[in-house]
Amino acid sequence: MGKLGEMMTKAKQMAKGHPDQADKGVAGAERTVDQRTGGKYDAQTDKAADAARRSYRDGGPAGR
């Protein structure tokens, strides 16, 4: 596994250990993107934020 993969694994472990703080980070990132793009990609940011939350709240995608 490369450095990026290792960083992702650590980030997921931290998020699983502190889901409330991770939720705040995801919401902040989503809000920032929406503000900077004028809400142009709102549907996509909603979908991405939901996927991010599922990755640490529900144990991630099926089979992982």
UniProtKB/TrEMBL annotation:
Q: Where is this region: Disordered?
A: 1-64
Instruction: Name the InterPro entries on file.
Output: Antitoxin_Rv0909/MT0933
On the tree of life, the source organism's domain of life is Bacteria
| Compositional bias segments (type: Basic and acidic residues) | 31-57
What protein is this chain from? Antitoxin
Which species is listed as the source? Streptomyces ambofaciens
